[in-house]
Specification:
By secondary structure, the chain is mostly helical. The protein is about 75% helix and about 0% strand. It contains four helices and no strands. Helix 2 runs antiparallel to helix 3. It starts with 5 loop residues before the first helix and ends in a 5-residue tail after the last helix.
């Protein structure tokens, strides 16, 4: 068995202490990367406006048919972007962009499910 000298033991202790300090420092940066109260309030206000606009369009019959649908879909897409930017902090993410990759994968799954459902409902021979 090898014997450790006092200096080696002290060196290992210092390396462990430095690693713990770096780990604490990383958590501080993770905490700082989240949004401020101001960004959350801005995101919340955008969300309220993007919810109120289509609601008012539909309830007051300001638009009908395709125009109303365009407003609804446009507001939904903008609402999605607001959620990503202000609440999920997608723009603040460092490399690698795991949240972005998970989002893209989720969108592919969603489009596959919706597209497949529409395909089945359109071309289902049994229901016709």
């Amino acid at each position: 068995m090898a014997q450790h000298s006092g200096n080696e033991h002290e060196h290992e202790h210092e390396n462990q202490h430095e690693h713990e300090h770096e780990h604490e420092h990383e958590h501080e940066h993770e905490h700082e990367s989240h949004g401020s109260l101001k960004s959350y309030v801005i995101g919340f206000l955008f969300s309220l406006v993007l919810t109120a606009i289509p609601l008012m369009v539909v309830l007051n019959h300001w638009l009908a048919g395709t125009a109303a649908k365009v407003v609804l879909v446009g507001a939904a897409v903008l609402q999605f972007v607001v959620q990503l930017v202000y609440f999920m902090h997608l723009r603040e993410e460092k490399k690698p962009r795991w949240n972005l990759l998970a989002l893209i994968f989720g969108l592919i799954v969603l489009m596959t499910i919706v597209g497949g459902s529409v395909w089945i409902m359109t071309y289902n021979v049994v229901s016709h």
